[in-house]
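Quick start: read one record
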Amino acid sequence: MGAIEPLSNLKWETEEPRKIYKFSPKYFLTMGLTNTNINFITQMDKQYPSRLIERQKIHDTHPNSLKCLPTAVPMVNEIYTFLVTTYLPQRYPTMFTLQSPSHLLNIATNKLLPTSPPQDPIEALHLLSVNIDEDFLMLLPAPDGDGYSLQSFIWCYPVGFDAGSKLGLKLREAHKPVPEYKEKLQGSMDRYFGKLEVGRVVYRVNWAIATNDSLCEDGEYHLYEGQEVSTETDIDISNCWVRCELQTLFALPKSGGRILSVHLYLYPLQQIKDEGLGEELCEAIDGLKLGNAPSFWRYKRAPVWQEKVKEFLRG
């Protein structure tokens, strides 16, 4: 899995969220992977306590945020054991410590986690979810041997769909609504997941404009071909955000599971403007329809918000 580097001096209470956004004048639909290491699969900052509260609220109202097929239980047990007994106490010694061979103490919340995964995999997923502000999408070879399918997940922060609708789907099926995915990415994604070696960790970043600060955005979020749109939609510019996902992919050694960890960041538009990146973001918004997948302009709902967002950024 790779060497774990301890953040021995981390003061998570004052740690600012990473700034992961990067805007390009043309949008190209590619895998866009960058090599990293196992230390990158989770992020900790001062938002940690409030995010854990939100995650529990999401679980209370969205039962589909935690799912596990019977075939995925060994994979869930493996990722749980790795995170609780090895990764968290070694990576974040100021936040987690092994209280005994049987329990890990979350110093930030003063709560204990069993080091052995609970018999119920949903309980194991829940314990991970309310101690780590990451979504984990867990894939195994599909039952028919053709590609990888989503067989378990912690998914608090979906965008534009109910998480439960994706359970059991292959990569190509889960991405079916994404414009140009079949033509541009399907083959390379299937091959990459199949060849991913243990110890290799990669990440990618995406961005979108959100017109509210909801973390769990499982309602209408995208525009599809043929859908009508009104540009008169009331947009509250003070509640518009750049929504970024830091997606990190790695493989488990025993189960062979492919794990995609996802950390969500929301940045106020005012922050982007204050940093002098307003024009850069405006160009990136226009660039959604200038690259190799121009239908992403509608898919990201740009017709709804682009005029008011650009007016604010340039004002």
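The first helix runs from residue 48 to 61.
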